[in-house]
Amino acid sequence: MTDSLRNKATETYTQARTKAEKALDVSRTKLRDGAAATRVRAKAAQEKARNGLSGNPLTAVAGGLALGAIIAALLPKTQRERRLVGPVSRSVKSSAKTAAKVAGNVAKAELIALGVSGDAARKQVRELAGKISKAASSASQAAVKTVRKDKSNNE
Fold first, then answer.
1. pLDDT of 37-51, one tens digit each?
2. How far apart are CA 66 and CA 100, in angstroms?
3. Nearest to 49 by CA among 131, 133, 142
4. How many of the other CB atoms lie within 10 Å of CB of 110?
5. Measured between alpha carbons, how far is residue 154 from residues 20, 35, 145 in Å?
6. Tens digits of per-residue pLDDT, 45-94?
7. What phi, psi does 78 have (nearest 5°)?
8. Is the dihedral of CA 36, 40, 42, 43 positive or negative?
9. Close Cβ partners of 59 (under 8 Å, ≥ 6 residues apart)
């Protein structure tokens, strides 16, 4: 009877291990395929953005600054960061504000010289932000679909 239980346990273990290995292989394959599809979409979005930005370099600069500001605002500050970096941060912020004002004035002068209106520049920045948001959303949706598909196939 002990041998029978031992044999049954060994057989059950072997079956479970085989099933787990197959599931792992399937998951790896699907993850690899999903990652490849995401890379292809990201590359296409990058190429599309590159083509759009090459014609509007000022829009690219404005969009990059806006995106950087959004990301910086979303990142939480830690207590240690406040303690260690606080004094330097205030100095950098002050310098950055001055530099931003100068850059803004130069950009305005450049836009005026090019005959570009403020409304047209704002429209281009909004369009760029929309394109960036759409690309991020597409990548996110692809990742979610891949994870959901993997999860449903493993169940």
1. 888 887 887 777 767
2. 12
3. 131
4. 11
5. 10, 18, 14
6. 777 776 765 666 677 677 777 877 777 767 777 777 677 767 776 776 77
7. -95, 160
8. positive
9. 53, 121, 124, 125, 127, 128
d(C-alpha 153, C-alpha 46), whole Å? 31
- Rounded percentage of the chain residues whose pLDDT exceeds 70: 76
Residue 66: CA atoms inside 13 Å, Cβ hemisphere, count?
Answer: 16
Q: Which amino acid is at 13?
A: Y
- Locate tokens 């979610």: which residue? 144
Structure tokens at 114: 């090019």
The residue extents of the domains of the chain are 2-154
54's tokens:
């090459």
CA distance from start to end of the chain: 34
- Quote the tokens at residue 88: 């330097």
Q: Which amino acid is at 131?
A: K
Tell me which amino acid residue 64 is: G
pLDDT confidence tier of residue 142, bands split at 50, 70 and 90: confident
What's the maximum distance between 2 C-alpha atoms anywhere in the chain? 94
With b meaning 16 or more CB within 10 Å and e meaning fewer, what string describes 29-49?
Answer: ebeeebeeebeeeeeebeeeb
